[in-house]
Amino acid sequence: MQGGYAAGARVAEHSSRDGGTEMSTGILLALGAYGLFTLMDASIKLLGGRYHVVQVVFFNALFGLATVTLIAALRGRLAGVRSPQWRLHLLRWAIGLPGGLAIFWAYPRMPLADVYAILFAAPLFMTALSVPVLAETVGWRRWSAVLVGFLGILVILRPGSGPFGPPALAALFGALVHACNMLLLRRMRGIDPPEAFGIWGNGLSVIATGSVLPWLWRAPTASDLALHGFAGALAGGGFLLLVLAHAKAPVAVLAPFQYSQMLYGIALGALLFGDLPDPATLAGATIVVGSGLYIFHREAVRARPGTT
Asked: Is the distance from CB of 196 to CB of 89 less than 8 angstroms?
């Protein structure tokens, strides 16, 4: 499994000959990763209706930790867990756990596609927060995209008549937390192997949720325990595919493909739960996705001198 990193290191060397093939492979791997993540979310949606969200997060983190640790061992990356950035890993986990709890709580209470439509606000939050947090310059084009995107969120939520309520607000909070986490990752990248992030985050979540689990515990059935394990394995498998994808294609190329989760979410929601997003949600999601794609485009070109 070391080949993923080795292949990524060779992309520039062979770009003139097979760069297009590497890029296509990276895109296919990313699409596969987001498909696995959507299957995981559907499993969480099934489990969340029967168990407390803290218990669901505990088992997901436990099985996710086992999967990522196995991946790290097979790739010879376990030594990288002893990170010089351990304080930032703690901060990232402390920020991320409340958001993860909020998103997992929202899944059983809303259609998957509706949750995804709200979570896609994360790039909008990232752009807005990059100014005070990272002191980045954001030009009028990206600010316009952020404004249009938040109007799309209002179309989805439709305060007073739509899905506006605690589950939708929990998903929106999750999007904000995810944006903060991604901004923190920008500061942490390039030092630790990717597996370190999965091991730190899942390991700390197991400790934190496990410490309160005795007061919330409900013994899972054998089938539900298997579903917990399946969800954790999906998280680890999706993580690995995404690592391999980023070894073959740049972030700017792969990032927009996260929006494939909307299509996966609509399909799984219809097949497993009989959920279909209403026209207003689809319209709002289209606005949010369009704004996010434009932001990704501007991120890709803003490195040019004088571009913001």
From this structure: yes
Inform me whether the pLDDT recorded for 81 exceeds 60. yes
Q: What angle do CA 225, 229, 234 make, to 5 degrees?
A: 145
Q: What does the CA dihedral 87, 91, 96, 98 come to, rounded to 10 degrees? A: 130
Segment holding 207, helix H or strand E: helix 194-212
Tokens of 222: 């054998």
- Tokens, residue 66: 């086992």
Q: Per mean pLDDT, which of 37-46, 83-92, 183-192 is the most reliable?
A: 37-46
Question: What is the predicted pLDDT for the residue at 239?
Answer: 80
pLDDT at 243 (0 to 100)? 74
Q: How open is the CA angle 3-13-306, to the nearest 5 degrees?
A: 115
Kindly state the DSSP code that residue 160 receives in the 8-state scheme.
Answer: T
DSSP at 2: T
Of the two residues 291 and 137, the one the predictor is more confident about is: 291
Give the span between the Cα atoms of 25 and 245, in whole angstroms. Answer: 7
Q: Which residues contact 66 (CB under 8 A, 6 or more apart)?
A: 232, 236
**What are the residues whose beta carbons fall under 8 Å from the beta carbon of 2, sequence distance 6 or more?**
75, 76
Other beta carbons within 10 angstroms of residue 98's beta carbon come to 12
Q: Would you call 39 helix, strand, or coil by DSSP?
A: helix
pLDDT for 160? 55
The average confidence (pLDDT) of the chain is 80
What band does 226 get if pLDDT is binned at 50, 70 and 90?
A: very high
Alpha carbon distance 106, 120 (integer Å):
15
Tokens found for residue 15: 């770009």
Take residue 258 and report the two structure tokens written for it.
């996260």
